[in-house]
Amino acid sequence: MPKRKGAAGAGGQKPVRHGKTANQRADAQRNRAKILAATPDALRKDPDASVADIAAEAGVGRMTLYGHFKTRAELIDATLADSLERAEAVLADVPLDGDPGGAFEALITSSWMLLDRIRAVFVVAQRELPPTRIREMHEKAEARMRGVVECGQREGVFRVDLPVTWLLAVTHLTMNAAAEETNAGRLDSDDAARVIVGTLRSAFAANGRF
Questions:
Q1: Is residue 38 located within the same domain as residue 138?
Q2: Residue 191 lies in a domain
Q3: Domain annotation covers residue 8
Q4: How large is the average pLDDT for residues 190-198?
């Protein structure tokens, strides 16, 4: 008995086109990566860039972008999360042994260098995402900073009359303020790390040691 047209194998089922599915998945991953990479550039040019503007920057269609991110806020969230994840890989290599004051300064300086690259995304995220979500995305970085601050308190470098949670909040707010001021053109990005460290040094120092 001849096989029916289009049938293949037992039961006459069509073969699963694994190759096509894999290619579609790879294309989707490439498009998502292109969108996440293009978003900081689009927001640097225009903080109010629309979804269509960002799609054009990425070289994809608007519907392709919406296939990955349903809203602009969702795209901002994903872009900031992706950027911070990449930054985390760099910050993990910052040496934190030795003098806590020096370690704190190195961590702040490295953090600012990374933040400066994505400050447009960060500033927009501050305006469009809940503060709790932004803090949540900073959990790993904050845990690293907490370790340095706690060490500094134990060794008498940082003030112990203020709780660690407050010192971390002040650090977070100071970094945010530097990003806002730099984005507004009121602070030179090359001078921001010095300003941040100077501000925190005067706030954290115990007996002038830091």
A1: no
A2: yes
A3: no
A4: 94
